[in-house]
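Class, discuss our next protein.
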Amino acid sequence: MSITQMPMWHEKDPADVVRDEVGDLSNVTVFHNQILVGIYTRPNKTKSGIILTEKTQQEDVFQGVVGLVLKVGPTAFQDDANNQFRGQSVKEGEWIVYRPSDTHKVSVNGKVCRLLEDAHVKLRVAHPDMVF
């Protein structure tokens, strides 16, 4: 999604915000079928002008269901005895939806992220606000 297609209430592209918050990942290696996801937190003001409290935004860190794919393990989305992906996969920079209970909370460069298995990705969305 280009900046011109971005919803008006975002001052900055949400993907850039997540990447900036997480920082340099050059020394991070994701193993096996795992996916490292940066958690999306909603902006403090909604499209309709409602101001979200800091508590509401903080809840996204623990209960949020949308994240930006930051790193993908080398065997993610490869068919095996348990899973047949039929060519489906995700790439770095894409927004995905997941169930928080299917993830592990990890802190990378001081930023809370999620680590999940490939089979726990529920869907891909063009923009994180589509889910809220």
Summary: The longest helix spans residues 54-63. The first strand starts at residue 34 and ends at 39. The CA atoms of residues 37 and 69 lie 5 Å apart.
